[in-house]
Structures are given as structure tokens and as C-alpha cells.
């Protein structure tokens, strides 16, 4: 097998160095990994190479393309002697667009208005309209919350509640709705507390983003504070690497990465930045999370006085009459007093460089490594670290730099995966040697460059991808094409797929006219560092708000959401799996959500339709006219049932459980 000379030199250099920070056994394993990895085909050079500006390839059927990106897709299709699939019907497209951008199906009126719009730019206008709605941020913010492993409780050994984590969730939704430039979005999540702010409102907005680093799971009852700190740092670094860079940084904690060009020294150079960052107010049993108090200054003193009086009131030695008097004082102080504005997030710690932990053991230390960014990421350029700050801001700005070849590629690949069901890089969280290579590397670079040129605008990428001919294809493809490309690696057709768990629940509530569209806020009523009440899960699930606003418990979850493959909040996940299991059908037949919604839908159709009510319900739920056979069979079913309301509720359950309702074509 031929290996490029420059790669071979680098490989030999790493093998020679691998013995410095490991024992004999570790040296053998590390060196074997470094040697075998490239021979097994682990190739990551493409990910670290500068983003190119490829020219659109020449194609035979150029008139099919609507955007430059289509040429890159079409070239791959034509190379295999196939043609792209015909365009989808307008009725299919509007439903696809609503489910994709809002996570909710369109109403009958919205469908009819689009079908009647014969303007050439009707589709582009529809996309713009959908992007302006607050429903967009709720839908696409949820995608990012998967990556950020968001939860309202800690999980692990101590399922402590995160009473202010919801502020991070709302921040994410707000950021997508405002189309906050993604480079700014990155910096705020890693170092928002270190950015200058013109006023308290801006300070709050920036600092809330730090929830990204804080909401991860942590072992809070660990009796070894030093180990606890290092485990937290490892989890933060690993999540940061996967989310923004598509890198598995954590693999280098104990030894040089076996596949990717990250050494153990690189790892501890980064670790120094996060060891100079405080996540908990104390690293002892049971540890407590750090929160920024961004309450208005005028109210801070009153809250401090309230806290002092409440502490005095709780003392056993305080006389009863004194406690009663304190209650009156506390009540008076709280009158008209806004709730404290507390933000879950990291802050600065005394700066320190970290010594290499031999085999990952902090009790067995090697040479000290200055804080810094791995050279492979920066093409050898050194990112200077400040003496009196952790270096988080410098790290964040480098990650968010247009010079960084990884970040733009990773996020446009995520956007593509969420739109098309499959990434150009099929492993969106891993661009390393154990991940898969891009099926269309020039397309990936084309999109990455367009993204940076747009000012890191996520909404601009939605417009680009959705206005393309690639996006507007039908799922009804030629059988020979499907047999040749069952995984749709060519993107030569629309990939039919089931909607996610949140969309299932929200769509059922919406069609039953039960969905509460209030935004933001928290359902958790708990003090900081107190245990979450798992008994509230059923109560939460009955609240008809959008699913993104339901509290996420790491230690447990909502039955319906788990059945439909909701993301595991313990880990960063940008590639949700989709399963088809019996539990899904059982949930749709027997859950309280379905029973209450089918009854509400029956009442709705009775109030709206005077005749042929099954036909009205089919159009309302499925967004299309019923066939004559469907209409006739529906009417016969209702007539034979005996109880019209009960019959319509049963008919509603059938429609809301159908593949046509649960799948996006």
C-alpha cells in the first residue's frame, strides 16, 4: 500500500515520540496503533486541509440545476449513468418544508394558499416566511440541543436538578430565530463571560451561552476532587471537539490518539485551558454547580438580605416569635421583587498549565505542557495564551475562525444531514479516521465556503439547500436507482423518513387543536443543587406545550419520546438513529396523548364539518383530498359504529398513527 511521503515522515516522527509519555506496554500499543491506523485506511488529511473553492463540474443536463450546489450532486449521479428523480408535487413540498423547518405540518389553509400561488418565486417566498416564524427556532434549536447534550438534570450518580438550564435552551432557540452568526454562537458558548458587553442585557445573552459547557453529566459524589475536576474537563473537551470540530479529543487522554493526529501533549495543552476554568463552586461531595448572578444591581441587595433572613429563620435556636417576625420581613422584601437572574455557566479559575498524565493517571505525571491549541488544527500557527485568563476566549475565536478548516465543514454537514437525512460525511460527529469520508468532498467545501461568505448565516444555508433541485426531488425514484443506491449516497432522490419523536408529539397535539405555542420558561420548580422529582414526568408529559420545552431528565425520560428514538442527553449526538419497533405502535394505540388528542380531534371535526366528516378529517390530518374509496369507507365505518363521536375518535387514531402522517416525503 502506497503512503504519501509527507504522511510517512509524520508517521515515523510520531512513532519515535510515542514512547516519551507512556510505559513499555503503552508504548507498544501506541506505536502499533500509529502504524496500523493509516494502513487500515484511516485518512484524515482531507478534514484538516484548507477549504477549497471548487468550480462547479460540467454536467450533461445542466438545465436541471437550480443552485450551484446541484452541479456537484448531478455530476456524481451522471457518473453512474443515472438521472436525478423528478420534482416532487407542490402539495408534497409544502408539507416537507413545514415539517423540516417548523417540525409541524401545515394547515389546510396554508396548503391551499401555496397551491394557488403561481408566482415563479412562490417556493422561495414560502421558505422565507417559514424562517421568519418563531416555530423555526424551536425546531432547529432542538437539533443543536442534541449536539449540546442538553438536559435539565445531571443524571449520573446524583440526579441534581439544573434549575437555570432552561435559559440555555431558550438562548439556543432565540439564537436560531435571530440567525445569530454561527461564529458568534460558538464564541458565546465557550467564552461568553469573557466578551465585552455594553449593558446588562448583552451580558446576560452572552453568558447564558456558557450552558453549553455546564449542562453535561457529572459524577457529583466523587470523593476524589482532583479526579472529579479532570473528568469534567475531559467531558467538556470531548463535547467541544465533537460539536464544533468533528473530533474525538478524549481519545488522547491516556496516550497519543491511535488514528487521528492528536498527541497526548496536545490533549493536556487543551486541558490546561479548561483546568483554568471553574464549573463547580466546590469539588467535594455533593458538588455544586457554579451560577452567574446577573440580577439587576438594584435588586441584588434585597435578595441578599432575603437570603440572610431566610438563613436566620432556619436556625433551630431562633425563637418562634422571632421566626414569625422574620417571615413578615421576608414577605415585605419579596413584594414586587423580580426573580433572581441566575445563569448556569463556567467562570475563570486561577490559570495553570497541566502536566501530562501518564496513562491518564493524574498521580503519575510527565512533563508540563503549556496551554494551547493543537498544531495540526492551526497548520503550525501558535495561538497565544494570556497569562491571567484561561485562554477559552482565544480557543473559541480560533475555532470560530474562517481559517479553521474544520468548523465550517462540520456545521454545514450537520445542516445537510438534518435536511436530507444523511450527511455528506455520514458520521457528522466524527471527521476523524474512524469516521466515514465525505461522499461529495467538493460539495462539502463549496457549502463551507458559501457559509463563511454569507457571514456564517445558518438561514442563508437553509435557503441555499432548500431552493436547490436536489432538495425538491420526489421520493418516488426509479427502481434501478434505488437498488443501485439503497442508502441514497448519490442524493439522487428524496429520502423518505419518519419524523423525530418531538415532531410526532407536537404534530398530534397540533392537529387535535391542543398545542400550546407559548415560548420559553421552565416547568421545573426546584432550588439549586436539589434532586429532581422524577414523579413529575407524567405531569410534564400532559402539558400540551411543544416538546422542546418539556424538562429533560437524564435519569429517566418520557415513554413516548423514548419509543420514537429521542436523543440520549448523556452524550453529544448529531445523528439520531431511527428505529421501527412494536413499542411505537403500542404507544400510538394506548397512550393518554393519543386518547385525549383523538377525542379532541373528533370534537373539532364535529364543530367544523356538517357532512362527510371522515373526508374532512383526512384532509385536515394528511393534508390532501381523500380518495372516493377512503371517503366511502370512512362514512361506512362511522355509520356502523353507532356512536358518531366515538367513531370519529377511533378514525382519528387510525389517521394519526398512519405512516402517511408519521413520515416526511
* Strand residue content: under 5%
Provide the helix percentage.
40-55%
Backbone shape: globular
**Strands side by side in the biggest sheet:** 1-6
- Tell me the total number of β-strands: 10
Number of helices: 31
Q: Taking all residues together, what is the mean pLDDT? A: 91
Tally of distinct domains: 5
Estimated structural class: mainly alpha
Distance between the termini: 44 Å
Please mark out the parts with pLDDT under 50 across 5 or more consecutive residues, or reply none. Answer: 1-7, 13-23, 33-42
Q: Characterize the largest beta sheet: strand count, sense, and whether it forms a barrel.
A: 2 strands, antiparallel
Radius of gyration: 28 Å
SSE order and pairing:
Elements: H1 5-17, H2 24-39, H3 45-48, H4 68-79, H5 90-101, H6 108-116, H7 122-132, H8 134-147, H9 166-178, H10 182-191, H11 200-208, H12 211-214, H13 225-245, H14 264-275, E1 277-278, E2 280-282, E3 288-289, E4 291-293, H15 297-314, H16 320-334, E5 342-344, E6 347-348, E7 354-357, E8 365-369, H17 375-378, H18 392-399, H19 405-420, H20 441-453, H21 458-466, H22 479-484, E9 497-498, H23 501-511, H24 537-541, H25 559-563, H26 582-590, H27 592-608, H28 613-622, H29 628-641, H30 644-656, H31 659-662, E10 663-664
Antiparallel strand pairs: 1-6, 2-3, 4-5, 7-8, 9-10
Helix pairs in contact: 1-2, 5-7, 7-21, 8-9, 10-18, 13-14, 15-16, 19-20, 19-21, 23-27, 26-27, 27-30, 28-29, 28-30, 29-30
Amino acid at each position: 500500500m502506497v503512503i504519501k511521503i509527507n504522511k510517512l515522515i509524520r508517521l515515523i516522527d510520531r512513532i519515535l515520540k510515542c514512547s516519551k509519555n507512556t510505559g513499555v506496554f503503552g508504548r507498544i500499543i501506541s506505536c502499533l496503533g500509529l502504524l496500523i491506523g493509516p494502513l487500515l485506511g484511516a485518512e484524515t488529511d482531507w478534514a484538516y486541509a484548507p477549504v477549497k473553492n471548487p468550480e462547479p463540474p460540467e454536467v450533461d443536463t445542466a438545465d436541471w440545476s437550480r443552485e450551484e450546489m446541484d452541479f456537484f450532486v448531478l455530476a456524481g449521479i451522471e457518473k453512474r449513468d443515472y438521472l436525478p428523480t423528478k420534482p416532487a408535487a407542490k402539495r408534497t413540498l409544502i408539507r416537507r418544508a413545514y415539517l423540516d423547518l417548523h417540525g409541524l405540518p401545515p394547515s389546510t389553509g396554508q396548503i391551499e394558499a401555496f397551491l394557488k400561488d403561481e408566482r415563479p418565486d412562490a417556493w422561495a417566498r414560502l421558505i422565507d416566511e417559514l424562517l421568519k416564524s418563531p416555530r423555526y427556532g424551536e425546531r432547529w434549536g432542538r437539533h443543536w440541543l442534541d449536539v449540546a447534550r442538553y438536559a435539565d438534570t445531571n443524571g449520573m450518580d446524583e440526579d441534581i436538578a439544573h434549575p437555570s438550564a432552561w435559559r440555555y435552551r431558550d438562548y439556543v432557540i432565540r439564537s436560531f430565530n435571530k440567525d445569530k452568526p454561527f461564529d458568534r454562537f460558538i464564541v458565546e458558548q465557550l467564552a461568553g463571560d469573557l466578551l465585552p458587553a455594553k449593558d446588562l442585557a448583552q451580558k446576560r445573552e452572552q453568558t447564558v451561552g456558557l450552558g453549553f459547557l455546564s449542562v453535561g453529566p457529572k459524577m457529583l459524589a466523587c470523593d476524589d476532587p482532583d479526579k472529579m475536576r479532570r473528568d469534567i474537563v475531559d467531558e467538556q473537551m470531548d463535547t467541544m471537539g465533537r460539536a464544533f470540530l468533528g473530533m474525538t479529543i478524549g481519545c488522547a487522554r491516556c496516550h497519543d490518539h491511535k488514528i487521528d493526529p492528536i498527541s497526548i501533549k496536545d490533549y493536556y495543552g487543551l486541558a490546561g485551558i479548561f483546568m483554568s476554568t471553574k464549573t463547580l463552586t466546590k469539588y467535594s461531595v455533593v458538588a455544586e454547580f457554579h451560577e452567574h448572578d446577573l440580577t439587576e444591581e438594584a435588586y441584588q441587595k434585597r435578595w441578599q438580605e432575603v437570603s440572610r433572613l431566610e438563613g436566620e429563620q432556619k436556625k433551630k435556636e431562633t425563637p418562634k416569635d422571632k421566626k414569625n417576625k422574620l417571615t413578615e420581613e421576608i414577605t415585605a422584601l419579596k413584594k414586587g421583587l423580580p426573580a433572581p437572574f441566575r445563569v448556569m455557566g463556567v467562570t475563570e479559575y486561577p490559570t495553570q498549565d497541566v502536566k501530562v498524565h501518564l496513562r491518564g493517571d493524574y498521580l503519575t505525571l510527565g512533563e508540563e505542557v503549556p496551554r494551547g491549541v493543537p498544531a495540526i488544527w492551526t497548520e503550525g500557527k501558535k495561538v497565544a495564551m494570556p497569562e491571567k485568563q484561561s485562554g477559552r476566549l482565544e480557543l473559541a475565536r480560533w475555532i470560530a475562525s474562517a481559517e479553521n478548516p474544520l468548523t465550517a465543514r462540520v456545521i454545514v454537514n450537520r445542516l445537510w444531514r438534518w435536511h436530507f437525512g444523511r450527511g455528506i460525511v455520514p458520521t457528522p460527529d466524527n471527521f476523524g479516521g474512524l469516521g466515514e469520508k465525505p461522499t461529495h468532498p467538493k460539495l462539502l467545501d463549496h457549502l463551507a465556503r458559501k457559509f463563511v461568505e454569507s457571514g456564517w448565516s445558518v438561514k442563508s444555508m437553509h435557503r441555499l439547500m432548500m431552493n436547490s433541485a436536489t432538495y425538491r426531488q420526489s421520493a418516488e425514484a426509479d427502481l434501478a436507482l434505488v437498488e443501485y443506491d439503497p442508502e441514497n449516497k448519490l442524493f439522487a432522490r428524496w429520502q423518505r423518513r419518519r419524523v423525530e419523536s418531538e415532531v410526532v408529539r407536537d404534530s398530534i397535539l397540533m392537529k387535535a387543536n391542543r398545542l400550546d405555542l407559548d415560548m420559553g420558561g421552565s416547568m421545573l420548580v426546584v432550588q439549586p443543587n436539589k434532586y429532581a422529582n422524577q414523579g413529575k414526568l407524567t405531569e410534564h408529559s400532559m402539558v400540551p406545550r411543544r416538546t422542546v420545552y418539556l424538562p429533560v431528565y437524564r435519569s429517566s425520560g418520557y415513554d413516548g419520546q423514548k419509543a420514537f428514538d429521542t436523543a440520549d442527553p448523556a452524550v453529544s449526538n448529531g445523528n439520531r438513529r431511527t428505529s421501527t419497533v412494536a413499542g411505537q405502535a403500542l404507544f400510538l394505540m394506548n397512550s393518554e396523548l393519543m386518547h385525549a388528542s383523538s377525542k379532541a380531534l373528533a370534537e373539532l371535526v364535529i364543530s367544523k364539518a356538517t357532512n362527510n366528516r371522515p373526508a374532512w378529517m383526512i384532509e385536515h390530518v394528511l393534508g390532501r383530498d381523500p380518495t372516493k374509496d377512503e371517503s366511502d369507507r370512512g362514512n361506512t365505518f362511522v355509520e356502523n359504529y353507532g356512536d358518531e363521536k366515538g367513531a370519529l375518535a377511533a378514525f382519528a387514531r387510525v389517521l394519526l398513527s398512519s405512516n402517511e402522517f408519521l413520515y416526511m416525503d
